[in-house]
Amino acid sequence: QTPESFPPLRNEAAVRVLRGRMKGIQGHCNSCYMDATLFSLFSCTSVLDSMLFKPFPLCDRNVQSILRDEIVNPLRKTGFVRAGSVMHLREQLTEKGPCSSFTNAEKDPEEFLNLIMHQILGIEPLLRLQSGGQERDSYCYQIFMDKQEDLVVPDVQQLVERSFLSSELKLVEIPSCFIIQMPRFGKEYKMFGKIIPSLELDITDLLLDSPRECCLCGDVATLECS
């Protein structure tokens, strides 16, 4: 355990600490979905550090301390988290959650995020989405889309925009944190062999009622054509 708090890794420090053999979060017993999610959320960003410290209304302080002291701080300090630490968290999720298979079965990252953010820590939803006039809250957005022949090696910007368009979705407001799950793939099928990370994401066209420029006259647009 590392009770001392460490900031997220940035720039040269991230390369120095995270690159090489025996780095990252050690996998064990179908833990890849959780390992990848935790690494993405905490290794190089502090956006969700409130999960580690803030006493939310429903907050389980034991789960919070395991997440902070056994996973996030060791990852940021040494670049390595042993499998036993993640298993300790999985055991707590199994004990406190409605599902009994968190210690051995592969899950969807969204299922993990909903459990730990909503039921165990009591965090408010991060996203407000609208589709067909109906609003819904969410903690992350999973990209769903049909295979498109013109997208061979897409970037995240393209995937998010096309997924929102095909699902007729809009963001009701600018999210405090936008967690995006890439298209699913299994052992037999991958929709894309590679996806290029977009280091910045332009959500102008994804926002509901966002003022935008007319592509013909340059004034503020009053109509939108998909």
UniProtKB/TrEMBL annotation:
What superkingdom does the record give? Eukaryota
Q: Which SUPFAM superfamilies match?
A: Cysteine proteinases (SSF54001)
The terms under GO molecular function for this entry are: cysteine-type deubiquitinase activity
Sorted alphabetically, which keywords does the UniProt record give?
Answer: Cytoplasm, Hydrolase
Q: Which InterPro entries match?
A: Papain-like_cys_pep_sf, USP_CS
Protein name (database record): CYLD hydrolase
Originating gene: Cyld_1
